[in-house]
Amino acid sequence: MKRFYLFFLFTIFFIGSIDAQDSTSVVDQTDKIKKGWSFGALPTITYNSDLGFQYGGLIDLYNYGDGDIFPKYYERYFLEISRFTKGSGKNNFSFESNRLIKGRTIFIDIMYQPDEQFDFLGANGYESVYNKSWEDEGGLDYKSKMFYKNQTKKLKIKADIITPISKGWSWLAGFEFYNYSVNTLDVDKYNDGKDKEDQIPSTDEMPGLWDRYKKWGIIDPKDVDGGSFLGAKLGVIYDTRDNWSNASKGVWSEAILIWVPEFIGSANAGYLKLNLTHRQYFTIIKEKLTFAYRLGYSGNIIGNEPYFALPIMYSAMLKNAATEGLGGQRTLRGIRRNRVVGDGEAYGNAEFRYKFWNFKMFKQHWYMATNAFLDAGRVVQLLPLKEKVNKVETEYAPLTDVDYWGNYAISGGDTIDDYFNFGAEKLHISYGLGLRVAMNENFVVGLDYGKTTNSQDGDSGMYIGLNYAF
Questions:
Q1: pTM strictly above 0.90
Q2: Average model confidence (pLDDT) for the chain?
Q3: Which neighbouring-strand residues pair with 429?
Q4: 16, 157, 257, 336: which could join 177 in a potential S-S bond, CB 3.0 to 4.6 Å?
């Protein structure tokens, strides 16, 4: 994969080293205070042989006012619009104000994200077996490069109001609306323009995992193609961070309840979900080295969440387009996206962050930093996957019955153990390194590379985007 985005990122670093040769290694703290508006823009230029070229850009705009609360800010506007030539894309706008309503913070986020190759790896983590060889062309066990993919389109609209109660404490009220459209992989679009030897089989000939789950009835037929729902949020937040974008000390914890009534939307079932997140930051070396960790839990209390909504991670103010977990850029780096999905998940991250260079460039204040991390998580509330498989086989036919299931059957030398390993769920672990460049403390561009410790979670992942993971 060619990554022009990565090339662009390191070009920024190179230009910075030229422009800042005469600057001191540490910027004077009085001079460092930013006033007025700060503007950050970045093109999104990557190439992927499966998705095509990604083109577009993002803008991150901050208003620091007279600088009296720097590095915190009064307003923030964020916009990202990008496309892949094969049809995927990101469209995200968010607005944050700490003075529109006196004494309150308002956060609005609107995102539409069509994903032609959305990761679907089953449920309950290791209870669903991941076979990398099925995706590897040329291998004896090859099925399809897109065996673990489907087509998912998501619209999200959320609004939060945060009201201070006392020092560090606030309460939150808001809502989140989602609309999901889930379908089988568009094989014709994927194969378009490819040589015959590079094309993948149709899903009629070689159904993917999502197609099989749908055919078998493991996913509730009412929800398998997606749906919409509106949830009301209520929560409490404790926040003593010294910096919203990269804290060096303090605590940031939140407990959020989201209630989705059955009579609003098409989710077919009402439910109440609890999300707990605790983050803490410690200064090891002032202005240089910080240790940060995050502990999180997300699970259902009452009712049944539709399958398509299970990966959603709810929070007070999520400042990035992606809301899926566990697995991937914002939760378990290096582990396949959506690898850890169940009725309830717990996770943790530990990270050392080291600022190794402060400088001035283009009349702005910059720093460069590196980070080393360890991520872990698992499903703690299992979905009744085993019961559903047993029910299907009892009421219809064994999943290995080719006469009944046709191409959707487990066949060709495969057994049910190649799909399911009931009782196998345990901790998923990854580790890695990252690099950051930040302008005026808050506009942070980063790269993380994570490596898994278990081949069932994939191999590794590289991520380029904005902000720290937490």
A1: no
A2: 86
A3: 376
A4: 157
